[in-house]
């Protein structure tokens, strides 16, 4: 029998381990990043965990009959979120993960640990019009069913209710599928970088 397409619901704290797993399984240009990390939690510490911990009302989870299969995580105010990270999130992780040199074995733990120690914050020129930012990831079995679009719409509605004027995100230029998805869902390119693109969505 084909899998049920999935239901979107608000975040519950018991979702956190699944969010970390999904983050890893979609973390290499949209595909499985397991082989890149000795510590399977590292990517989640940056791109999944802090958002629902800082503000659980802006995380939405897709579940099918087997459990969580995708999520959208966000902050309404990137500048305040960065202050929160400095106060509440990074200190414990910096102590847990001292900086490391590249072991030259193909793993990238040292890269993510470097970001934990020196977080590159949002481009300040964007923050007046697009103060929110987000990350979205769906496991392969939940992709291509319209759930990504529905997650963006669900988050956009929650942000509009708070009067947030816009949303930005970063995407790796190699992730052509995600760039196509963001373009179809209304995002426009704001900047190009050596690592990828910044895209924005106007919510007004
Ligand atoms: C990118 C992602 C969030 C898209 O979600 P999704 O549920 O698969 O996309 P949807 O089914 O809602 O598609 C919405 C629109 O985007 C288009 N789209 C989605 N994925 C696409 C792809 N790979 N190539 C081209 N178009 C795509 C769809 O055709 C659809 O267009 P339409 O509604 O105008 O017909 C999801 O595939 C995913 O999580 N991928 C892996 C992780 C990832 O890359 N995350 C983003 C990191 S920045």
At the fold tier of CATH, the topology name is: Aminopeptidase
Approximate shape: globular
Category by helix and strand content: alpha+beta
**CATH C-level name:** Alpha Beta
Sheet with the most strands, sense and barrel status: 7 strands, mixed
Beta-strand residue fraction: 15-25%
Number of helices: 7
Low-pLDDT sequence parts: none
> What is the residue-mean pLDDT, rounded to a whole number?
96
Q: What percent of the residues sit in helical stretches (DSSP H or I)?
A: 25-40%
- SSE string: EHHHEEHHEHEHEE
Q: How far is the N terminus from the C terminus?
A: 42 Å
Number of domain units: 1
What is Rg? 16 Å
CATH architectural arrangement = 3-Layer(aba) Sandwich
What is the number of beta strands? 7
Corresponding CATH superfamily: Gcn5-related N-acetyltransferase (GNAT)
- Spell out which ligands are present: coenzyme A
Strand order of the largest sheet: 1-2-3-4-5-7-6
Can I get a quick summary?
The protein is an alpha+beta fold. It is built from seven helices and seven strands; from the N terminus they run βαααββααβαβαββ. Strands 1-2-3-4-5-7-6 form a seven-stranded mixed sheet, sandwiched between helices.
Describe the overall structure.
The chain is an alpha+beta fold and 204 residues long. The protein has one domain: Gcn5-related N-acetyltransferase (GNAT) (Aminopeptidase, 3-Layer(aba) Sandwich), CATH 3.40.630. It contains seven helices and seven strands; from the N terminus they run E-H-H-H-E-E-H-H-E-H-E-H-E-E. It has a seven-stranded mixed beta sheet, sandwiched between helices. The chain is globular. The model has no long low-confidence stretch (mean pLDDT 96). Bound molecules: coenzyme A. Coenzyme A (COA) binds next to strand 4, helix 6 and helix 7.
